[in-house]
Amino acid sequence: MAEHTKSSITIEAAPADVMGVIADFARYPEWTGEVKEAEVLATDARGRAEQVRLLLDAGAIKDDHTLAYSWTGDNVVSWSLVKSQMLRALDGSYSLAPAAGGKHTEVTYQLTVDVKIPMLGMIKRKAEKVIIDRALAGLKKRVESGAATEADPV
Fold first, then answer.
1. CA nearest 115: which of 66, 63, 77, 68?
2. CB count, 10 Å around CB of 76?
3. What is the DSSP code string of 61-124?
4. Could you tell me the mean pLDDT of each successive run of 10 residues in the chain, 154 residues long?
5. 121: buried, middle or exposed (CB in 10 Å: 19+, 13-18, 0-12)?
6. Is-contact 23 142, C-beta < 8 A?
7. With the CA atoms of 30, 31, 37 and 42 taken in that order, what torsion angle do they form, in degrees rounded to the nearest 10?
8. Is 145 in a helix, a strand, or coil?
9. What is the DSSP letter of 18?
10. What pLDDT is stored for residue 132 in this prediction?
11. Measuring CA to CA, how many Å separate 35 from each of 45, 120, 152?
12. What is the full DSSP assignment across 31-42?
């Protein structure tokens, strides 16, 4: 199995509120920084995204890719790469765990990236760490600012 990078952060909100922001792909360009466009291509019976097209601009990595999402209960979402111009693999997950009696959420983000161009493993892990840290910081800021989605809860 490929190496992965993992990091966690505590967000001052209930898990359902955090997952509501994670599941609202249309608003990713408002808070993620790297995602310039997001389009849900397919949904499951509960209305959760199953395939999402993302236009990414993360400096060295600019890509138009499609991810397949799977949902485990209400607190875990994982994804894997369907197609991409630059990436060979993009597998990740958000896992949410209630903390402080459900008033806070421990969010763990795990990510594995493999690019089609040769890249040292050390540089790849550094890029994964930057992506994860930015995503977690953006998620925390978005959720705690109260700018959460108006959509139905997941």
1. 63
2. 15
3. EEEEEEEEEEEETTTEEEEEEEE-SSEEEEEEEEEEEEEGGGTEEEEEEEEEEEESS---HHHH
4. 80 96 94 91 96 86 91 96 91 96 95 73 67 84 75 42
5. exposed
6. no
7. -100
8. coil
9. H
10. 78
11. 26, 24, 23
12. H-SSEEEEEEEE
**Tokens read off for 143:** 């959720």
Q: Which amino acid is at 145?
A: S
Residue 150 is classified by DSSP as -
Q: What is the pLDDT of residue 34?
A: 83
Residue among 81, 84, 83, 82 at smallest CA distance from 92: 81
Task: Give the sheet arrangement for strand 61-72, strand by strand.
Answer: 5-11, 104-115, 87-99, 76-83, 61-72, 49-58, 35-43
